[in-house]
Design goal:
about 270 residues, alpha/beta
């Protein structure tokens, strides 16, 4: 599935349910007709190939951190809002984790308010930041998430950055947006003037919208976005979590996450009994 970086894709991502199938014995499999066995094995392959989110210690920690952050920011305040920052090297599951957090809260808030099928309610916005992002293109990506005709590229190219930002803020306010997820933020460069303006735009945007922000990217402690005067201010608002790999355990360490992962995979995959 493509990244859920438009409202239509996010809706599919939010509503998608995991496939399951009953696990049978090799004897029962051989008792099936050829067509039944083909259909069953096709279903097993689909179950194996689908996305999985493991309840890792990293994901648990992020859930706790985000819950604390949301609780801190529940009441209206003029104090600068903090953001949850998810960092780590490539392949650590940052995007998977923040998307899982977003889907969980989207479903929760819709259920709590009885708005499961309300297309006007958009509590979560998810955007993947493209390489060499400028302030205007950052706002265009946020506007494009809503996939509204007045925010298509031909229109926004004729608008100023401030006009697009104001349109995005007003749209999020009407939609009841409560969580904004910016993925791949290491693609915002600040060693050029456009990059420094992007950091400024990002800081001002977080001040203007009454929502909690989650940012994710590669080695965020070293990216240029958080350097310089404006970058330091933005950096001071981060509550950071670094995602690390899991090494194979020592024989004596029975509670190691690696063994828990193996046990989870064994029970989740539709392997023949």
């Amino acid at each position: 599935m493509a990244a859920p970086n438009t409202l239509a894709r996010w809706e599919k991502f939010r509503q998608r349910e995991r496939l399951t199938c009953e696990v049978v014995s090799p004897r029962d499999l051989m008792r099936m007709s050829v067509e039944e066995r083909e259909d069953y094995n096709d279903l097993r392959l689909r179950v194996v190939a689908q996305d999985r989110v493991l309840k890792t210690p990293d994901l648990h920690r992020l859930e706790v951190m985000l819950a604390d952050l949301l609780a801190d920011q529940m009441e209206a305040t003029s104090v600068a809002k903090h953001m949850l920052s998810v960092s780590g090297r490539s392949g650590m599951g940052k995007s998977t984790a923040v998307q899982a957090l977003g889907r969980s809260y989207d479903r929760r808030w819709r259920r709590q308010q009885g708005r499961q099928d309300d297309v006007e309610f958009v509590p979560i916005v998810y955007v993947g930041v493209e390489p060499a992002t400028t302030p205007k293109s950052l706002m265009q990506s946020l506007a494009a998430f809503f996939n509204l005709p007045q925010y298509d590229l031909a229109v926004t190219n004729r608008m100023t950055q401030s006009q697009i930002k104001r349109a995005v803020v007003e749209t999020m306010e009407r939609a009841g947006t409560r969580l904004v997820i910016l993925d791949e933020v290491h693609n915002i460069r600040s060693n050029r003037q456009a990059g420094m303006e992007a950091a400024t735009t990002m800081k001002m945007f977080t001040d203007e919208i009454d929502a909690t922000f989650v940012i994710a990217g590669i080695d965020l402690d070293r990216v240029e976005l958080f350097q310089g005067e404006m970058g330091v201010q933005l950096d001071g608002r981060r509550r950071s979590h670094d995602m690390l790999g899991y090494a194979r355990p020592k024989p004596s360490d029975e509670a190691d996450p690696w063994l828990l992962f193996l046990d989870w995979w064994e029970h989740d995959l539709p392997l023949l009994k």
